[in-house]
Structures are given as C-alpha cells and as structure tokens.
Specification:
By secondary structure, this protein is mainly beta. Helices cover 10% and strands 15% of the residues. The protein has helices at residues 53-56, 80-84, and strands at residues 3-8, 14-18, 37-39. Strands 2-1-3 form a three-stranded antiparallel β-sheet, with no helix packed on it. It is elongated. The two termini are 39 Å apart.
C-alpha cells in the first residue's frame, strides 16, 4: 500500500496516510477537523535494489544499476551514442 501525503488548506498541517489505491482521498484534517485536506503530489520514497526483473530483463550489457556499484554518476547526461547507438540525427 502506498503512503500518501496530505496538507490542510485551512491550518497548513501536513499528514501522511497509508491507504489502498482504491481508497477515497481523505478530506477531514486530523489537526483542525476542517474538510480542507488536499493530496500532495510527491515522489516515491523507495529504490529497487538487488537482482530481479527490473535489473535483468530491461537492461543490456553492463548497464546494471545495482546497489554498491562503483561506476559513474547517474546524473550525467547520456551521449548521442549511448542513447540510440548514434543512429539518430538529433543534437544531444
């Protein structure tokens, strides 16, 4: 079950709730009891580690992203040769 973040529009209280995907969004603020809770959009707080289908089935060669890997930073921009094998004519 995912953890959703909420913020009250009346008092500013922030709240986290563990809910099923099918559950209706919360409305009432637990701090001020006003029906002003709004669901926030946030990034997931986890990373898949180790071997598994997400590491082995969709990557080729040595392009693994396994925990403890001592390679280059993932924040670097891909070169034209690495993103499409150099077959595209766009300037990266």
């Amino acid at each position: 079950m995912p953890i959703y973040e909420y913020q009250c529009q009346a008092c500013g209280h922030e709240h986290e709730a563990l809910q099923k995907l099918s559950d209706a969004p919360l409305i009432n603020c637990p701090a001020c009891s006003q029906p002003e809770l709004m669901k926030k959009i946030s990034a997931a707080g986890f990373r898949l580690k180790g071997g598994g289908w997400y590491e082995t089935d969709f990557k080729s060669g040595n392009k693994k992203n396994v925990a403890g890997e001592s390679g280059s930073s993932s924040a670097s921009a891909p070169s034209a040769a690495s993103c499409c094998g150099g077959s595209c004519k766009s300037s990266h």
